[in-house]
Write a structure and sequence with these properties.
- By secondary structure, the protein is mainly α.
- It has three helices and two strands; from the N terminus they run αββαα.
- It has helices spanning about 15-20, 50-75, 75-85, and strands spanning about 30, 35-40.
- The longest helix is centred in the C-terminal third of the chain and has 25 residues, at about 50-75.
- The mean pLDDT is about 90.
């Protein structure tokens, strides 16, 4: 899926006012006349510096656990890659 990026300043005032209705933690689903979802608008909020640091620490712990489990099971990264390629 290709995503087109548009600066908010390039949008019309009407579109900016519409998007301003979207609240953090919520979104907007636009439906057709039959009630079928056609578009979804979800606000993007960037993680704070402390949130990113916390996530990296959690990932490091997870990587250590996975590495230990792989060692105990006698499995290598090459084994995992080979298994993933066979899933097609």
């Amino acid at each position: 899926m290709n995503m087109q990026r548009i600066a908010i300043s390039e949008l019309s005032e009407q579109v900016r006012l519409f998007l301003a209705q979207v609240r953090a933690g919520e979104g907007i689903v636009i439906e057709d006349e039959s009630g079928r979802s056609q578009y979804g608008i979800i606000p993007y909020s960037e993680a704070t510096t402390s949130e990113r640091a916390y996530a990296w620490k959690k990932l490091e712990v997870l990587q250590q656990k996975v590495g230990q489990a792989m060692t105990q099971a006698g499995v290598t990264e090459a084994d995992i890659e080979k298994a993933l390629l066979q899933v097609d």
